[in-house]
Write a structure and sequence with these properties.
single chain, 19 helices, 15% strand, globular, disordered C terminus
Length: 590
């Protein structure tokens, strides 16, 4: 073997079980995994992601500290939100990336259930791995999972309860769902208080089942350190985290508001590389006067719209600010892009970049704009906005880490409430739906005579694993609790579920533990699709890494600097470049 060439050694690496040399199709540095090895690779990655987040599941779930270290600073995030955790980690396993993607999709679509969807997909693959080891073909497993999914979905829809049309009863249902959503979050101990805040904010949007699209930009969340979480409050109106410019009025009633995204500093020459030379200070003064004249013309165009308030996303120099302040216009500069977009939606205005058509431009309006104090900082409050839908939730707390997690928790609750109002159906929580679906799937498995029945039973075991994990995270006796829950539901107690405060099986109707049907349905379908995609894998190809030049071959990187006089410097530089190109010794190049 030692006498073989490099080509022969590469060929020896590509041999089959009996030693036959296989052709080298891919790049030498690329890799591939086939058959059982490929399936093992994807199973391990997906199950690892599931195990990573499953300890955060349920009301007694634990938090994770995410510590990212950058070049100049490090950031710490404390959370138990599945989507936040998975978005923060970087993985190379393809199956792990699939689970991260479905968790992100769950967060974007319904706002909650991000941990549930990842854990359920992991448990399905854990059961599928056992079946693959028992020599059951993946396509057979997939077919069984599809039958089980349909049975589980049908059972889930049969458990759904219609939300009441009575406003008082609907508000009560919304508060119950919000409290259930917040039970697994940082706001657990103040869940009733924050559930009411979230419900009040969502109800202002006026979303109904006939108009399901809700513009969540109308709900602004501001975080201000100081005080406790109980000091948070809901403020009617929109609050902008900016200050009014110096010399402008601090209060305006029934104003016309112009929102712009236009440069309000002195115009600069935009052609790169161009220069303007002046041979005297008089010429410089003429250039400055021309700049001021051009800016004054622009301000006159703005004032032709007759605004009472001018809000610009970009910087405003002192001169145009002074011109508008003299006309009694309130000036607000550097409103970030998110702020201007929200303001345009709240005030019913359009964002202008040119000001040539004052008659056709749409300005915003509200009843009152004033400067307020929150903590020790100044803010601008817009009250009585168009439609009176906008509101601001001001979060108070002892630190930014707590406020960040409180914002994520409250955002999840708001998203779930909008989904509930749009679809109007709830189910009981506490593991009730998972066990009910598992029992229905087991009944479906009894009617199947082929090997798909084994996959259907495995699907039921994966569903039962969710309440087991919830009980384990609370430190309770999970086998006893789950068996009691299965027994109660089998006997017809359809409202039974896990009472995680007492560690027993309780009545979910009496405890008021309900969840949004859309969240549970989306998690079920997404987890099944992800498991099916991963099960189909039997070959993994990894491309060769991009080749990079070795920096050590450039000898000039370790050269010492020497002083060369100005007249002879070009000659020495040319000679050094010539030496480096010819790979001459380092001393000559120096």
């Amino acid at each position: 073997v030692s006498t073989q060439s490099t080509w022969d050694l590469n060929q020896l690496k590509n041999t089959d079980e009996v030693g036959n040399v296989l052709p080298q199709v891919f790049n030498v540095e690329s890799s591939e995994e086939k058959g059982e090895l490929a399936r093992l690779h994807v199973f391990v990655g997906a199950i690892a992601i599931s195990d990573l987040v499953k300890t955060t599941l349920g009301p007694k779930g634990m938090d994770k500290i995410l510590h990212s270290i950058g070049e100049h600073e490090s950031k710490i995030t404390i959370t138990n939100d599945g989507a936040t955790i998975l978005k923060s980690i970087h993985v190379s396993n393809p199956a792990a990336k699939i689970l991260i993607d479905i968790s992100k999709t769950q967060d974007d679509m319904v706002g909650d259930g991000t941990t549930t969807v990842a854990v359920l997909a992991g448990e399905l693959l854990r059961q599928a791995e056992k079946l693959v080891q028992a020599k059951i073909h993946p396509q057979t497993i997939i077919e069984g999972f599809r039958i089980a999914r349909d049975a589980a979905k049908a059972k889930l829809l049969s458990l759904a309860m219609e939300s009441s049309d009575d406003p008082a009863k609907q508000r009560e249902d919304l508060i119950k769902v919000a409290m259930t959503t917040l039970s697994s979050k940082l706001l657990f101990h103040e869940k009733e208080f924050f559930a009411k805040l979230a419900v009040d904010a969502v109800l202002r949007l006026g979303t109904t089942s006939k108009t399901p699209s809700a513009n969540l930009d109308l709900i602004k969340i501001i975080k201000k350190p100081g005080g406790s979480l109980k000091d948070s409050y809901l403020d009617e109106g929109f609050v902008l985290e900016k200050a009014i410019s110096v010399g402008c009025p601090r209060r305006k009633e029934n104003p016309k508001i112009l929102i712009a995204n236009s440069p309000m500093d002195y115009d600069k020459i935009k052609i790169q590389g161009s220069k303007v030379k002046a041979d005297s200070m008089e010429k410089v003064a003429e250039i400055e006067a021309a700049e001021k004249s051009k800016m004054k013309d622009k301000v006159d165009k703005i004032l032709a719209h007759k605004p009472d308030i001018f809000i610009n996303r970009q910087l405003i120099y002192n001169y145009p600010e002074q011109l508008m302040a003299e006309k009694g216009v309130m000036v607000i500069e550097h409103a970030d892009f998110d702020g201007t977009e929200r303001l345009a939606a709240v005030l019913g205005a359009e964002i202008l970049s040119t000001f040539d058509a004052p008659t056709t431009s749409r300005l915003g309006s509200c009843k009152l704009v004033e400067e307020i104090m929150i903590g020790e900082d100044k803010f601008i409050k817009f009250s009585g906005c168009a439609g009176n839908k906008a509101c601001t939730i001001v979060l108070r707390g002892s630190g930014l880490h707590i406020l960040d997690e409180a914002e994520r928790s409250l955002h999840d609750a708001i998203c779930v409430l909008t989904q509930l109002i749009a679809h109007g159906k709830t189910i009981y929580g506490g593991g009730n739906s998972e066990v009910s679906m598992a029992l229905a799937v087991e009944e479906a498995a009894k009617k199947v005579k082929t090997k798909e029945g084994l996959a259907i039973e495995a699907f039921a075991q994966a569903l039962k694993a969710l309440p087991v994990i919830i009980a384990d995270n609370g430190g309770f006796d999970s086998p006893t609790m789950i068996q009691n829950l299965v027994s109660d539901i089998s006997e017809g107690k359809l409202t039974a579920g896990l009472d995680m405060q007492k560690g027993t099986v309780g009545d979910m109707k009496e405890l008021g533990i309900t969840e949004c049907l859309k969240v549970k349905e989306s998690a079920l379908l997404s987890a099944c699709e992800a498991a099916e995609v991963i099960l189909r894998v039997d070959h993994i190809l990894v491309c060769a890494p991009r080749k990079r030049e070795d920096p050590s071959k450039y000898t000039h990187q370790n050269l010492s600097l020497i002083h060369i006089s100005e007249p002879t410097r070009p000659l020495y530089i040319s000679y050094a470049v010539f030496c480096l190109k010819k790979k001459t010794p380092t001393t000559h190049a120096s």
